[in-house]
Amino acid sequence: MKYYGTTDKGKVRKNNQDSYVIASNGADDVFAIVADGIGGNSGGDIASRLAVSHFSKAFSETDGFSDARAVREWISRHVTIANTLIYEYGSQHPSLKGMGTTLCGAMITGFGTFIVNIGDSRAYTWSYYGRMAQVTMDHTLVNDMLMHGELTPEEAKTFPRRNVLTNALGVWETVRSDIDLHQEKMDGLLLCSDGLHGYVSEDRIREIVLNRDMDPALRARRLMRSALDAGGYDNVTVILIELEREPE
User: Fold this and answer.
1) Is the CA virtual torsion 69, 74, 75, 76 positive or negative?
2) Diameter of the chain by CA atoms?
3) Contacts of 54 (CB under 8 A, 6+ apart)
């Protein structure tokens, strides 16, 4: 397995509220996470760092999992713990109240790849035969309106409140998370904040991700460069993972 992560504050924002980690445990499972913080007065920075730090430490201390059910239970339990950690920190610091973060993670185990999602950072799976697919659902107002037929895909592109989240880690006392098991064959995964997928077309992302002439580190940096060249209007975080599988 090869992987590479990178983050940048972009060209407009004063600081970087994104955080990421690629951690391993005693069984050589890998857990990659992208967190995009929200909240003023550095609240987003703190929230994303708290989330990434908690999951990294907790995961690295595990010796592995007995089955897929144990993996799901571990993720669900630690989502609740991290949510409480961030929520209470915000409650104890009035200037930071309401801070939170997205969380998008891929845990690669012997039982398959588990994707956890809260918010609008994204995970994509890809294969060298030309397939790249988004495997997370954005927890946003605009996506809810799309699903209910209140907006067309074209209208959604310019909808003024398209970045409003309907779900985030640490903002409320409770949080919902999507946890999905993927056992299909794939050559790799891409995790990213909306600083990439919000400004770079999916066709351009696919073109870079599926370029076998570049190693994952170079492809991740090329994705970052594309986001910055598109204006760098937001913080950008990219994790690219190439799995060890013979191409079909």
Assistant:
1) positive
2) 55
3) 78, 81, 82, 85
Closest CA to 192 of 29, 35, 4: 35
| End-to-end alpha carbon distance in the chain | 17
What residue spans of the chain are helical by DSSP H? Answer: 43-60, 68-92, 141-147, 153-158, 194-197, 202-209, 216-229
pLDDT, tens digit, 9 for 90 and up, residues 111-167: 999 999 999 999 999 999 999 999 999 998 888 888 888 878 877 777 777 778 999
Nearest in space to 101 (alpha carbons), one of 43, 50, 38, 195: 38
Which residues does 171 contact at the CB level (< 8 Å), separation at least 6? 38, 87, 90, 98, 99, 100
DSSP 243: -
As a whole number of angstroms, the distance between CA 49 and CA 78 comes to 15
Q: Are the C-beta atoms of residues 29 and 86 closer than 8 Å to each other?
A: no
Identity (one letter) of the amino acid at 180? D
Residues in contact with 109: Cβ distance below 8 Å, sequence separation at least 6, in sequence order? 27, 29, 64, 65, 71
The phi and psi torsions of 169 (rounded to 5 degrees) equal -85, 125
Q: pTM of the prediction? A: 0.94
CA gap 37, 2 in Å, rounded: 27
For 224-240, how does the pLDDT look when each residue is reduced to its tens digit (9 = 90+)? 999 999 999 999 999 99
Q: How far is CA 92 from CA 43, 89, 97, in A?
A: 12, 5, 8
- Residue matched to tokens 């659902």: 137
